[in-house]
């Protein structure tokens, strides 16, 4: 989504707002207000928070704008201390007001005010800054579209139908590891298109020669780890990971259930035997689980520099591409992303058009892939917007590549997602690497 003119930005704004409504359209009124876990949020809150974000721009830039409701500023704020007090995240499901109807009304009012802001944007002082902030707000809403998919899955699973499912796709056989030449190269986003501040600036990084899996670790491979006592053998785990396994009594990834002695996986398409899903990427694993399985396999997780070199680097030209397959944006043939609408992982080898020159498949879409890298600022990092990315740069790990819940225009190979190492409610998987 390379929106540049005000007309482009206005079009992108209305498109992303419409897509959010499309995601929540199948929900019943009761579904909007339920919070199933402290780390989840009610769909109603996402609807209001994404509107609150744009209201903060209206408050700053639209002459004569009056805040819609002071109570909304408290309830729909997320973690921005500079905008005042806010409700704790784990309390978002404890309130029945504002109602869903009132929240939708709020959303409509904000959209009408934003339309007026677009009409006068050119005449405002600071219009270039405003244009950048609106673009950030659009990308911010796409982030919440993905979070909505996570939250709806945790709430409803197969009671929610994503809209349509793809017919089964032919697959190609994907095996082994690709050997990637090391060397000095530049990591990060350096183009003119939108990127978050944590993807910048580009800077040189040296990596040794390494090998990386051509496919994400599959359910079948993860089952081998489990059957070999992976969750009961401390040798494979970081100390904190092993404590988490013990305290949480983990025996399998999130959404796995044992029925009559067989492991089953629950998702939007129902409950399926894990053995019937052996060729699918394993998902909903934490960093601790991913690193333990990698160690058990005699491998390790890649660094984010290794991951990006694999995904972007063209060894023949020595140039970085926007995506593993080249510079063409993602579409239904190259990656399994939000608009594809199965909202489940695709079997390995389902998107051969998306492979890179080293025959690595599904680096974009399906599952966010854990790396071994800490989420820290790049050298020369300058925040574009305080309290957006900068305040989280401690104690978290980087994931790359997007998932089946990531909007197509939102993802790129330099995108740095980040979560705490014990978290697994997002669509997270991994592929392994080793040093040559």
Account of the protein in words:
There is one protein chain. The protein has 9 helices and 14 strands. The chain has helices at 6-24, 43-61, 70-75, 100-120, 127-156, 219-227, 239-248, 287-296, 304-312; strands at 177-180, 183-187, 203-207, 210-213, 256-259, 262-267, 270-273, 313-314, 319-320, 368-374, 397-400, 417-419, 428-429, 433-435. The strands form 5 sheets. Strands 12-11-10-13 form a 4-stranded mixed beta sheet. A hairpin with a 2-residue loop joins strand 5 and strand 6. The longest helix has 30 residues, at 127-156. The model has no long low-confidence stretch (mean pLDDT 95).
In short:
The protein is of the alpha+beta class and 436 residues long.
Low-pLDDT residue intervals, each spanning 5 or more residues: none
Q: Tell me the strand order in the biggest sheet.
A: 12-11-10-13
Number of strands: 14
- Rg over alpha carbons: 22 Å
Broad shape: globular
- Largest sheet geometry: 4 strands, mixed
Average pLDDT score: 95
Give the end-to-end Cα distance, rounded to a whole number of Å: 38 Å
- The number of helical elements comes to 9
Beta-strand percentage range = 5-15%
Helix content: 25-40%
The structure class reads alpha+beta
- Written as H for each helix and E for each strand, in order along the chain, the element string is HHHHHEEEEHHEEEHHEEEEEEE
């Amino acid at each position: 989504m390379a929106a540049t003119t005000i007309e482009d930005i206005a079009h992108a704004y209305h498109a992303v707002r419409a897509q959010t409504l499309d995601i929540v359209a199948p929900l019943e009124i009761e579904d909007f207000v339920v919070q199933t876990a402290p780390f989840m949020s009610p769909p109603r809150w996402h609807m209001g928070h994404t509107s609150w974000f744009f209201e903060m721009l209206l408050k700053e830039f639209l002459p004569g704008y009056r805040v819609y409701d002071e109570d909304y500023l408290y309830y729909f704020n997320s973690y921005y201390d500079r905008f005042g007090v806010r409700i704790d995240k784990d309390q978002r499901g404890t309130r029945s007001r504002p109602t869903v109807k009132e929240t939708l009304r709020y959303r409509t009012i904000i959209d009408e005010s934003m339309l007026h802001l677009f009409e006068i944007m050119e005449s405002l002082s600071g219009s270039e800054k405003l244009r950048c902030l609106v673009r950030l707000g659009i990308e911010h809403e796409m982030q919440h579209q993905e979070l909505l998919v996570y939250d709806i899955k945790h709430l409803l699973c197969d009671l929610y139908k994503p809209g349509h499912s793809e017919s089964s796709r032919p697959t190609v056989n994907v095996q082994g590891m690709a050997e990637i030449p090391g060397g000095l190269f530049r990591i990060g986003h350096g183009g003119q298109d939108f990127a978050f501040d944590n993807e910048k600036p580009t800077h040189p990084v040296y990596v040794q020669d390494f090998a990386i899996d051509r496919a994400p670790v599959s359910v079948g491979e993860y089952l081998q780890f489990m059957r070999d006592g992976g969750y009961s053998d401390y040798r494979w785990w970081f100390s904190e990971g092993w404590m988490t396994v013990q305290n949480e009594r983990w025996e399998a990834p999130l959404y796995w259930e044992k029925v009559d002695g067989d492991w089953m996986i629950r998702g939007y398409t129902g409950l399926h035997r894990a053995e019937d899903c052996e060729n699918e990427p394993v998902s909903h694993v934490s960093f601790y689980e991913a690193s333990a399985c990698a160690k058990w396999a005699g491998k390790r997780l890649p660094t984010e520099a290794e991951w990006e070199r694999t995904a972007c680097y063209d060894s023949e030209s020595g140039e970085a591409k926007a995506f593993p397959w080249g510079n063409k944006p993602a579409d239904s043939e190259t990656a399994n992303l939000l608009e594809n609408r199965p909202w489940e992982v695709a079997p390995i080898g389902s998107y051969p058009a998306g492979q890179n020159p080293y025959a690595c498949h599904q680096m974009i879409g399906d599952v966010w892939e854990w790396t071994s890298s800490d989420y820290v600022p790049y050298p020369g990092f300058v925040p574009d917007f305080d309290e957006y990315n900068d305040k989280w740069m401690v104690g978290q790990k980087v994931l790359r590549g997007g998932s089946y819940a990531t909007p197509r225009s939102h993802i790129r190979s330099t995108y740095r997602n980040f979560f705490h190492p014990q978290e697994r409610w997002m669509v997270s998987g991994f592929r392994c690497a080793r040093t040559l």
